[in-house]
Amino acid sequence: MDASAESQSGSNNAEEQSHCATPPKEHLSYQAMLPVISDELDVFDGVPSLPFSGGPSTSTYRDLQASSSHFLHTMPPSVLYHGQFQRLEPIFERYNNEFCVIPLTLDLPLNPFRYRTAAVQRSGYLLHAVLALSCHHIDNSSSSGNGDQLSETVLDHGRIALQLFRRALNSDSVAPMSSSLLDTIVILFSLDEAYSLLGSWTAHLTGAYSILEIGGGTVAWTKNPRTVVQVALLTWWDAVISLVNRTPCVFPYEYFESVLACCDDRSWTFFGLCGCPQSLVVSLIQLAHVAAEKQKSASMRWVVFDSSLVSEIEQSLEAWSHTPSDTAFDNEESMHQDMDCMHCSEAWRNGLLLYIYRVFRWEPGDTPPMRVINRARVIMDHACACRDDQFVARQALLPLFFAGCELTDLSAQNKIRVLCSLWNERTRYYMFGAMIPLLEEVWTAQKDHGPEYVWWGQIVDKKGSTESRHSLQMRICFG
């Protein structure tokens, strides 16, 4: 057996330890499948042996039975199911066709959220992570959904995924499983975003970084195109969290530089991932690192912060302009797509300039100049200019937050509420709705004390310190 085959075999064996064996082939018609899901505990790998209290309740399987029913009853009676994965295939298929695209600006050939069938069949933790996120969307795609409340189904699958994930991390074979472990972290991160702006995001990111380092670091992961796009997404999330909270990034800048060196526009783009073009992502990540340095220097008596890099970034942002794509004028749809791209990108550019003002230029007692208020209005206008049916503008949530914190006009504030509510409802990611009370808190404080004495950073820091428990740091993420 050659080295690569041996490595693959080791990977499979290691992952199978976290996944109960598939039962002997069973031939079940789709009518017989539903009760089996609730009656056979071994249909979900790993469940019987998990140590948490009482194990998963049978209501979990009834919930899944109900949520699966619509898809299963659209299939012809002649369809037969072989083994446990096939029984749940309608849910997995909907996840790969629909749910995994929702966090992105547009679907990509290398979609970091799309699972690989072989990996799900081998890895119990990945299977349950996919089920948890799928059940969240299914539960809340009807008018009877619980909104921002976790259903018992989602909780159980999320808990099982974490239990199996921790077991895998404690094994001696983390490196061979690194690919499926990363898949799981990306999906669990997205699941957390579906319920809140606040989360222990650093725990996810630190885990991902450790797995990548154990797997060989940049030398290893840059050889795998799928891992490259996952690292691109992870470094983006890391930078956005660092930017808002002014805290150090988990991933070193070297990781981001390695991503840039491996970019392949045919398979993925930063705009496709997060609605921000690559040139502006570079500025954002640099600002995140510099903001953390400024925050640290503020607590050091003999250190003076050097703002020269900030000035360079500011000048580059002022000079930046959107370049139409080569296909922008091929037809009307291409033109609209390019205009949506321009509006979303301009929202990001102006948002980063607002950030520079508040974080690096503003001092308590300074009244924001009218050019700052004008820039905030420009961001809102760009967000509103994107087509509603594509809702590309939802990717500019963070710039819209920066803008909203500068606008005192009641009509403008209400327009932002409407946008966030719409995105909240359509994506089923409740971080959009969670931004509204955060803005309300900023607006109330500014009304009471004046915008020259209150800025969004004070509210964000207060939220993080209030919600943090023990050593678990809670941070806000607009990613």
UniProtKB/TrEMBL annotation:
Keywords: Nucleus
Record's subcellular location: Nucleus
Region span, Disordered: 1-24
Pfam (any one): Fungal_trans_2
Sequence ranges of Polar residues compositional bias: 1-15
An annotated GO cellular component: nucleus
UniProt name for this protein: Fungal-specific transcription factor domain-containing protein
Organism whose genome encodes this protein: Cladophialophora psammophila CBS 110553
